[in-house]
Amino acid sequence: MKKIGILTSGGDAPGMNAAIRAVVRKSIYNGLEAYGIYQGYSGLINGNIKQLELGSVGDIIHRGGTMLRSARCEEFKTKEGQQKGIEQLKKFGIDALVVIGGDGSFMGAKALTEQGFPCIGVPATIDNDISGTQFTIGFDTALNTVLNAIDRIRDTASSHERTFIIEVMGRDAGDIALWSGLAGGAETILVPEEKYDMENIAERLHSGQKRGKKHSIIIVAEGVMSATEFAEELKKSINIETRVSVLGHIQRGGTPTGFDRVLASRLGARAVELLMEGKGGRTVGIEKDQIVDNDILSVLGQPRKFSSDMYDLSQVLSI
Ligand code: F6P
Predict the structure, then answer these.
(1) For 240-254, what is each residue's pLDDT tens digit?
(2) Ligand 1 neighbourhood includes 11 CB (under 6 angstroms)
(3) Do residues 158 and 178 touch, judged by C-beta distance below 8 A?
(4) Was 95 annotated as part of a binding site?
(5) pTM of the model
């Protein structure tokens, strides 16, 4: 193996650049050539590919987003699209690929591996929803961005004695809501993994009020419903003044935390090692501070185990 390709795909996540840097530098350190594929799988189909040198990835470790840019590509889900991608890989003489992204991006990696191009998936998404790893690249940064927002909103909530409903990202997974809600002292956390009871939420708010509690923070993962919908539902059960705040894409950007940079560096480097060992069709991850790898088939479409213990704790601590 002489040439490794790298692409980022799906929603961007802080730390993707640190992972790209690790893949490029680890490859060059080992006498391999590294090729950046721009705009994810659509760039692969279109041959938007350039060789990356050591300097190409200088001054990016601290930057959010992805220097390779990202895209969600419908065409690559088809056999024809994959064939076009393979032709481009052959044209550039690329022997193997590192795919940095989420579950959807790993589908492409699996398809390419099955067609003779070994791929390794590096989990990067703010949602922290990939199995085979305790943490995905970008989650820690997003968590801290959300916490920062919660802390600010809390100032206004307390000054004006209001209940704030804050909508965070997480289409299918509640980790951002759970972790930020627990760390931000939220009274109520709504996640797609757990059922909620509106009467019970209203009752808790009501008994809080009776104890003299003047403000509350409610975190809603977007996968449950929008914060506006929740505010309307809540109004039917309790008469309190609420305000809604949708954090949106600010959660995806920004300087990666130290944790995300280190995680990205370790996972990116391990991906190259696996390819050098002749392995493909695997994903890398972290479990109990050890870098691990798993068959991509065992990871795909498997929701990561939700921490019910943490959810229960959040209920206890928010009485
Ligand atoms: O990256 C995952 C995610 O942030 C989801 O939580 C969210 O629903 C989705 O991406 C939105 O992405 P986009 O606006 O890029 O389609």
Answers:
(1) 889 999 999 999 999
(2) yes
(3) no
(4) no
(5) 0.97
